[in-house]
Amino acid sequence: MSLLTPAASSAEPAIHCDNCDAVCCRLTVVLLPGDNVPEHLTTYTDAGLHVMARDEEGWCVAVDGARMCCSIYETRPAICRKFAMAGPYCEQVREDYRDLYTREIPLTLC
Question: How many CB atoms lie within 10 A of CB 28?
């Protein structure tokens, strides 16, 4: 007899970076002292916070779109390192993203 965890018994597959839309890569990443990120990948907010820059679609500029991974993974900011995949914040960010970007298009049969 096996025990199912709540995640295993839900309709949604387990959360892994390789089956996710990488919505965490759309969050504002505030850089901390000691983060070793190349300056050309950073910017400053109107409030003066040093953050990871984002492209015109809102994605972190460190995302390598061709390989769908972080191009600076080994030296990524501390906040990115602390982001817990499948943790409560990850699940909330994914839910917010789904609510914002999921559009129901009615199916019309001809």
Answer: 12
